[in-house]
Amino acid sequence: MFQVKGRLVDLDARTTYGAIITVNDAGFIEAIEKDPTRDHRGWFILPGFVDAHVHIESSMLLPVEFAKLAVIHGTVATVSDPHEIANVMGLEGVEYMLDNATHTPLNINFGAPSCVPATSFETAGAELGVKEVVSLLEREDIKYLSEVMNYPAVLNGDLEMLAKISAAIERGKAVDGHAPGLRGAEAAAYARAGITTEHECTSEAEARDKLAADMMILIREGSAAKNYAALHGLIDEFPDRLMFCTDDSHPDDLMAGHINLLVNRAIKDGHNLYDVLNIACRNPVQHYKLDIGQLKVGDRADFIQVDDLRFMAVMTTYIKGQLVAEAGHHNLPDFRPEPINRFNCSPKVPADFAVAPGPEGAKLRVIEVFDGELVTGKQLLSPTLDADGRPVATPERDLLKIAVINRYEDAPPAVGFVTGMKLERGAIASSVAHDSHNIVVVGVSDEDICRVANAVIAERGGIAAGRDEYLEVLPLPVAGIMSNDSGPRVAARYGELNGFARRKLRCGLAAPFMTLSFLALLVIPELKLSDRGVFEAGSFSLVELWE
Q1: How far apart are CA 142 and CA 146, in angstroms?
Q2: Tell me, what's the pLDDT at 417?
Q3: CATH architecture type of domain 48-291
Q4: Percentage of the chain lying above the pLDDT 70 cut
Q5: What is the pLDDT of residue 502?
Q6: Residue among 245, 299, 262, 326 nearest 50 (CA)
Q7: What confidence category does residue 538 fall into, taking pLDDT thresholds of 50, 70 and 90?
Q8: Residues contacting residue 32 through CB under 8 Å, at least 6 positions apart
Q9: Where are the domains positioned within the chain?
């Protein structure tokens, strides 16, 4: 039994007062005693932060290593969708994440992936049907049905998709949404199917439509998608209907901060302290029915201490009475499991990435990248042709080649074109390519594209950047999407690769590899590339490269 003394931030009473918290040996709050002598001195005690939607795999870290970075920033729990590893390894991958999470005190609440694969227009390493999803939902350690990305299936009454949703509802578990750009009557119809959250809103108008449909809205600020600026105006009006999330956070960003950064930013922008903390600490716990303490007698002792309510510098983090982080350092154990993987892809040659001549006068359907966004646009551009009439990359026009290579079986690469990558030299490649995690590569020549793609193939997963004789690689041996190394080392190496891409290859994007990893994500509008070809979200179908 021990005591923590300071100024308690009471979210129910919406006040702050001096208090002494007694924590028993089982890790629960035994008593909270008011102490007026501390009303104006000492650190502030408040519930810990919850990331309401995150794919831990996107940090390229195992759960035990993700936890070491998250707890430093005051995170006591996550709502985590393991569909990234499920797309590679199926149920075996989900089990791997569940087991790994038992080796850390961070409360990682996994969901049952609802869309594996996300669409029928790509090759994944596994498929989770109704039987597999129900088997997961039966488990106590599976808390909800993960994001329903195939929203056309919901709107069209697909029986398999609706069966998965019904299975979650019947077991009293929430159903997460994913319907970027869906508005009005369609958004309402999607919500009526039983879907309760949305983390893909990029405008206040879209969010209001989904709030009107009785959905909870997640304000997302991750490594690639940053929607706080567009949505934070909703905080004062809907403090009980919002949550904060990162969705996808690469390791260098996680080293710098987590949900605490969103809290700090919202408070600096003048939003009410108690509203912001409700969004960050309480709403996810209530919505997902999580076993996370809320600073009440009888609760688990899950709380943090900060030195100032304006800047939210986290001094200590407690999870179930255990001091897991203090003064920027974690107190968590190491655990290094053997990697699992599924990779069956042989090296390529430059000729594999050549594109046949198109019809005379035809234009290319080109993916348009927007820095800091997951959504892409579509442009119709005239190609630059080589002596044989084949379209080629033209870096001076910011028109580059993109290829997606099936990692699960040998097949010809799918090749397209992209603008907005701002890459002047060489190529970058990654086997972190949502959601099926085939190899995605962008470059200025077929030779450079082939070289970096083969570097990823040689490691059976990783990210790579190179030009001419220069080549940098970060191996990702766990399912081709995660490292089994420590968070700081992975973050440092990832930072080096990002720096290499920006300096040596003159890439103008803020997060080159994070942006690259979403160019094969078909369920985000508008134009993407799968291992089977160019995909248009508007028609939800594969389309020809030439138009």
Answers
A1: 10
A2: 98
A3: Alpha-Beta Barrel (3.20)
A4: 100
A5: 94
A6: 245
A7: confident
A8: 8, 19, 20, 21, 22, 295, 296, 297
A9: 48-291, 350-543
**What is the separation of C-alpha 11 from the centre of its chain, rounded to a whole number of angstroms?**
28
Helix (H) or strand (E) holding 524: none
Q: Taking Cα atoms as reference points, which of 405, 414, 473 lies closest to residue 437?
A: 405
Per-residue model confidence as pLDDT tens digits over 77-133:
999 999 999 999 999 999 999 999 999 999 999 999 999 998 889 999 999 999 999
Distance CA 56, CA 39 (A): 39
Comparing CA positions, the residue from 292, 290, 284, 298 lying closest to residue 317 is: 292
As given in the structure block, the two tokens for residue 319 are: 């999870």
pLDDT, tens only, 46-60 = 999 999 999 999 999
Under the banding of pLDDT at 50, 70 and 90, the label for residue 467 is very high
d(CA 168, CA 137): 7
User: CB neighbours of 218 closer than 8 A, spacing ≥ 6?
Assistant: 52, 53, 197, 198, 199, 242, 243, 244, 245
The position carrying tokens 């440092």 is 492
Closest CA to 291 of 98, 146, 24, 77: 77
Backbone angles phi, psi at 454, to 5 degrees: -65, -30
Residue 8 burial (CB count, 10 A): 25
Tokens of 101: 């999470």
Helix (H, G, I), strand (E, B) or coil at 135: helix
Q: Name the more confident of 150 and 187.
A: 187
Extract the tokens encoding 183: 């508005």
Element (H, E) at 259: helix 259-268
**Run of H or E residues at 108:** strand 107-112
Rounded mean pLDDT of 304-312?
93
- CA 546/CA 27 separation, integer angstroms: 63
Token readout for 298 is 């009888």
pLDDT at 286 over 80: yes
